[in-house]
């Protein structure tokens, strides 16, 4: 009982330190993290007509949740859940009877470069998969041991991960690797894999029906490959769970000349702990190692000879574009590294206590718990203020209400998907209009990385971009509305020719195209019906799991794993 309270306290303290700026009002907007006050639910969030389903079913889930919870609170719930569940899950998963090593595991998994860099690039839904992985591993172990309520708990651990394609695939592969066993029911294994596949059905079905196709620009392989963060190179950065492609989202401490040396220290301690992990959980340790090694190789694929194969795949294999940003696949590696580091520290502390005294062993464990913080001090306090909330200008509500009165497609200008705004502290953020406006929005889905532009997949956006690049008026795109986001480069006068100004605010302008249809053409009913059915099926899986747990009253996944 006391140990559980301490672990909850540690998880809460880590969460409070990392997310301290969220005590202020407003929204944390960074790159892909775009929460809005009330996100409308529309077909583009369920079955995108021209884009790959990168945010399916994430956007639909957020929109449904917004019916009960305002956006600012929903964002805080999601971010708190990431850090809190990551810390607590790693601590619960660690196979030990001692409390101190669990604290080490909590810090080693919840205070990592991977979490920091993905938080700073705004990929909160991917980080939900990161936070849920320890709980998923626990639930798989419970299911193999036939503990009551194990299957519902497994599904509830996999469901948040499946908010994005990458997280959903990670959950499915984890279950497929960890669950099968000679002495375990094949029928239960097949049922479990089928249920986790249904959780992935929303984005799978949406991808099959999208006009975007499944291939990607091979230029993205080099641009999204793992990068060196200091003198030691990309592979050492990956070994420390860093190496994200976007240098603007790398904490300054990762550039330190000492960072690789501390990373090597962490690796050495972790290697010493891996035999202990294998001895204490022999039924799953080897499989966890397979997941970790596989994830690391995927993360490193874009940095070496594998880049050629990866370029071929993204052009010829539908869906292979998911593999371009490989560093995100370090999630299983990060978990194994945290577990190995905690057990290695426990082993070293035991040796020290036997040869010196017990207090020396305790000091060593305390140092091990603090080492992730020493290695990455600038994750504290919202990455030293980088996660500071801001407020949306009032223009956004005015424009959203006007578009809702006369629905129709919106062309968002300037035709850049990511820009800086003075009202958002000059942080790069994704265009909020697809989530703020209750209408289909044409925005530029190409991504500029330095001097290189990686082409997007939306054919409608590509056609609009080509027309605008040729100097043609925006009215020729055929959208009902043209939204101009001010303060980041105003479009030329000829671009707005033929449009009627409806609203002229300090931060936004809304122009109407008089010759455009009031409502954009609807997508095929069959495609939408299939996508909606996939969403409903996934929701029923989650609902059934919740009901089953309530009926069983099982709480076994809260119990620490012992050896």
Automatic annotation (TrEMBL):
Keywords for this protein: Membrane, Transmembrane, Transmembrane helix
Membrane spanning residue stretches: 7-28, 73-94, 115-137, 157-179, 191-212, 257-277, 289-310, 330-351, 363-384, 529-552
Domain of life: Bacteria
The protein's name: Membrane protein YfhO
Annotated organism of origin: Actinoplanes derwentensis
């Amino acid at each position: 009982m006391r140990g559980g309270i301490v672990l909850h306290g540690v998880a809460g303290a880590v969460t409070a330190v990392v997310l301290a700026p969220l005590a202020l009002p407003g929204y944390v907007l960074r790159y892909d993290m775009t929460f809005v006050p009330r996100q409308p639910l529309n077909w583009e969030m369920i079955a995108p007509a021209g884009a790959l389903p990168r945010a399916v079913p994430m956007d639909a889930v957020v929109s449904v949740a917004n019916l009960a919870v305002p956006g600012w609170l929903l964002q805080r719930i999601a971010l708190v859940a990431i850090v809190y569940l990551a810390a607590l899950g790693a601590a619960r998963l660690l196979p030990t009877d001692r409390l101190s090593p669990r604290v080490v595991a909590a810090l080693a998994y919840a205070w990592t470069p991977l979490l920091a860099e993905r938080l700073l690039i705004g990929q909160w839904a991917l980080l939900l998969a990161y936070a849920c992985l320890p709980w998923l591993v626990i639930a798989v172990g419970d299911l193999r041991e036939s503990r009551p309520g194990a299957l519902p708990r497994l599904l509830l651990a996999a469901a948040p991960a499946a908010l994005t394609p990458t997280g959903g695939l990670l959950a499915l592969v984890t279950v497929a690797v960890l669950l099968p066993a000679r002495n375990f029911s094949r029928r239960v294994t097949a049922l479990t894999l089928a249920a986790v596949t249904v959780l992935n059905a929303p984005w799978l079905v949406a991808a099959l029906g999208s006009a975007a196709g499944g291939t990607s620009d091979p230029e993205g392989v080099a641009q999204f490959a793992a990068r060196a963060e200091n003198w030691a190179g990309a592979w050492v950065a990956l070994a420390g769970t860093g190496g994200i492609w976007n240098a603007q989202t790398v904490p300054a401490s990762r550039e330190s000349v000492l960072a690789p040396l501390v990373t090597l220290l962490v690796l050495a301690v972790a290697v010493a702990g891996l035999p202990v992990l294998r001895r204490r959980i022999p039924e799953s340790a080897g499989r966890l190692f397979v997941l970790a090694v596989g994830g690391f190789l995927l993360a490193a694929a874009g940095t070496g000879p594998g880049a050629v194969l990866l370029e071929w795949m993204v052009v010829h294999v539908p869906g292979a574009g998911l593999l371009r940003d490989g560093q995100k696949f370090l999630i299983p590696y990060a978990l194994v590294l945290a577990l190995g580091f905690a057990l290695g520290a426990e082993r070293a502390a035991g040796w020290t206590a036997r040869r010196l005294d017990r207090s020396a062993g305790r000091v060593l464990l305390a140092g091990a718990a603090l080492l992730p913080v020493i290695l990455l001090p600038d994750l504290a306090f919202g990455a030293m203020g980088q996660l500071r909330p801001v407020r949306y200008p009032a223009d956004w509500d005015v424009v959203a209400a006007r578009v809702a009165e006369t629905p129709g497609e919106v062309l968002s200008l300037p035709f850049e998907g990511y820009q800086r705004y003075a009202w958002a502290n000059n942080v790069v953020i994704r265009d909020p209009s697809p989530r703020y406006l209750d209408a289909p929005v044409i925005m530029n889905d190409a991504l500029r990385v330095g001097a290189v532009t990686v082409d997007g997949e939306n054919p409608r956006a590509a056609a609009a971009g080509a027309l605008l690049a040729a100097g043609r008026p925006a009215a020729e795109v055929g959208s009902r509305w043209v939204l101009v986001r001010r303060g980041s480069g105003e479009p030329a006068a000829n671009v707005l020719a033929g449009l009627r100004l409806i609203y002229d605010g300090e931060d936004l302008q809304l122009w109407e195209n008089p010759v455009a249809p009031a409502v954009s053409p609807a997508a095929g009913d069959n495609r939408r019906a299939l996508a909606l059915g996939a969403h409903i099926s996934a929701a029923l899986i989650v609902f059934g799991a919740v009901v089953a747990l309530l009926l069983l009253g099982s709480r076994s996944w809260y119990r620490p794993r012992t050896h």
